[in-house]
Amino acid sequence: MAPRSADPVAVAAESARSVKQGKVARPRLKKRRVKTPDGQMSLKDHLIELRNRLIKSGIALLLATIAAFFLYEPVFNALVDPVTRLSTDERQVAVEFTALGQPLDIMIQVSLFIGIVISSPVWLYQAWAYIVPGLKKKEKRYALGFIAAAVPLFVLGVGLGWLVLPEAAQFFVGLTPGELTNNIHVDVYIPFVLRLFLAFGISLVLPVILVGLNMIGVLKGRQIIKHWRITVFLIALLAALAAPGGDAMTMFYLAIPLVTLFGIAIGLCLVNDRRRTKRGLAQEQDIEASIHQGPTPLDQL
């Protein structure tokens, strides 16, 4: 005997009762963040945007750090080599661990640093995308240009710190008096090296950030020139901290790339300001011309 087909009217009535009683969950629509015509968002939407950017950056950093554990040993040996190579029969130099769990701590620190470098394209983009969420579609291409310039400069800054490290190590070890042994604690040496690399990497990215802020109209070239003394002082201070040898020539050679990049950034900002001014004048002239021309006759429409 064939099964009886369900009555459509009864099925519809049963579904209506289920919805009324809350037994059937209605699909939830994802609420989109509303922006004003000029790209502004509410404080709540800004916090949500910040949370999402941090989550994406954190995931990228976590994955890169996990992968970096496989590179820990060769990278660690390369970091301590500028110091250990200075050891001689007259002056012994060694990098030593002073606690049972210290090797694990240093492994995490070094792997985290490698992860920061590897994941730099992701977190640099997320930082830039959060700073300029209201860009138009035509202006969003600046984000790609920002990454194309910021990532190589960040890596170049880390490489510059790598070139400075042997000179700094030789200076400090050279201060050891007589034939005494210099046993360097690894929990002091490794953080010093990593901070040195990060300082150089981030400092070379700052000029790119200035150009990006100028392109979106937040910062003008004249404003940067107005505070050029502070910029030069900070560059000299950074060079002095990174090259503790104390000689003026070492500081000068370290400050050259930083001053050059800031000079290029200021020049690009001024050129962009001049172009923006010309476009504004052209638009004003077009508007004035259309006003003087008067309304278009109906027979010409």
TrEMBL record:
<dbReference type="GO" id="GO:0009977">
    <property type="term" value="F:proton motive force dependent protein transmembrane transporter activity"/>
</dbReference>
<feature type="transmembrane region" description="Helical">
    <location>
        <begin position="251"/>
        <end position="271"/>
    </location>
</feature>
<feature type="transmembrane region" description="Helical">
    <location>
        <begin position="192"/>
        <end position="216"/>
    </location>
</feature>
<keyword id="KW-1133">Transmembrane helix</keyword>
<feature type="region of interest" description="Disordered">
    <location>
        <begin position="1"/>
        <end position="35"/>
    </location>
</feature>
<dbReference type="InterPro" id="IPR002033">
    <property type="entry name" value="TatC"/>
</dbReference>
<dbReference type="GO" id="GO:0033281">
    <property type="term" value="C:TAT protein transport complex"/>
</dbReference>
<feature type="compositionally biased region" description="Basic residues">
    <location>
        <begin position="23"/>
        <end position="34"/>
    </location>
</feature>
<comment type="subunit">
    <text>The Tat system comprises two distinct complexes: a TatABC complex, containing multiple copies of TatA, TatB and TatC subunits, and a separate TatA complex, containing only TatA subunits. Substrates initially bind to the TatABC complex, which probably triggers association of the separate TatA complex to form the active translocon.</text>
</comment>
<dbReference type="GO" id="GO:0065002">
    <property type="term" value="P:intracellular protein transmembrane transport"/>
</dbReference>
<feature type="transmembrane region" description="Helical">
    <location>
        <begin position="54"/>
        <end position="72"/>
    </location>
</feature>
<feature type="transmembrane region" description="Helical">
    <location>
        <begin position="228"/>
        <end position="245"/>
    </location>
</feature>
<keyword id="KW-1003">Cell membrane</keyword>
<keyword id="KW-0653">Protein transport</keyword>
<protein>
    <recommendedName>
        <fullName>Sec-independent protein translocase protein TatC</fullName>
    </recommendedName>
</protein>
<feature type="transmembrane region" description="Helical">
    <location>
        <begin position="106"/>
        <end position="131"/>
    </location>
</feature>
<keyword id="KW-0811">Translocation</keyword>
<keyword id="KW-0472">Membrane</keyword>
<keyword id="KW-0813">Transport</keyword>
<comment type="similarity">
    <text>Belongs to the TatC family.</text>
</comment>
<dbReference type="GO" id="GO:0043953">
    <property type="term" value="P:protein transport by the Tat complex"/>
</dbReference>
<keyword id="KW-0812">Transmembrane</keyword>
<comment type="function">
    <text>Part of the twin-arginine translocation (Tat) system that transports large folded proteins containing a characteristic twin-arginine motif in their signal peptide across membranes. Together with TatB, TatC is part of a receptor directly interacting with Tat signal peptides.</text>
</comment>
<dbReference type="Pfam" id="PF00902">
    <property type="entry name" value="TatC"/>
</dbReference>
<feature type="transmembrane region" description="Helical">
    <location>
        <begin position="143"/>
        <end position="165"/>
    </location>
</feature>
